[in-house]
Amino acid sequence: MSPKPTTATRPTSGPIASCGNDQALVIPADPRWPLRARKITGSLLHATPARRVLRGGRGHLRLTDASSRSRLSANPRASVLARLHGVGTLTERLGHDEIFGDVVLVGPRGRNTVALQPFWDLLSHPGPYQVQARRGPADGWTAMGQHPDWFSAATAAVDLPGQTPPIHDVRIAPGADFAQRWDWAQLAARQLAPGRSWHAFGHVLRPSQITACLSLAELADIFTGPATSLRPTFFNYRDLALLRSAGTAPSWSAMRHGLLIPLSGKPVLRGQARNAQLLPRLLNATRDQLRLGRY
Q1: Where is the composition biased (Polar residues) (predicted)?
Q2: What pLDDT, on the 0 to 100 scale, is given for residue 141?
Q3: Which of 99, 130, 217, 267 would bridge 212 by S-S if both were Cys, CB 3.0 to 4.6 A apart?
């Protein structure tokens, strides 16, 4: 169990303060305690013997034995994490039982003691988070609003199926604040129609239509994949945004640090080659490097 919080401790669902390559993720039942990284031992694993497998072989939530639940507090953060990332269909995941007591998130094998990197990447984001849904298994993700922290975003995501037309799946992704998305939309409008009013393209390039990606690899897959729309499309990962212009022969531009960088003149690389070379350089470059093309 978590130690008793002090009176100065406030409710939190903010980012993980620190993490390591050899640590598990502890999700305390008391919402006043933040998520934290911890190197766990065999004794802790034996103390939390039950397991719930997360979707795609991503890991296990090690839970307290069911016979002890009556003595423990509910763990709303672990419950919503299981409903968002658990195995089964969306309907099956939403029907998961409530989780009680402190929970440890570890890897995909039964005796792993280390949480996988995608969870560290997602939960260490300072916010905001974008809630997303898709109508079918082959459909793209659609932005459904933003929330300041991962718990409120995850709660909103699992509530979506009861409020909207049929949904195949939901998720949350690291978002960008409204000011950042507004700047990207204005940069994009100037790229698509130099010298014309922003208002002429406001109906096409709304900040709310920028779709956040869960990882840099996902952004790279979109970048190198086939066009799915004849309209301008917008994607971002963290503070790097990509704009695909309209038409059957589209061109791409990147936006970061208030700059728009045309990418159509870059060597055409595919799949992992482009992911390994171009996008990480754009994401890590300084403003001066981007301005001078030295990335």
Answers
A1: 1-12
A2: 92
A3: 130
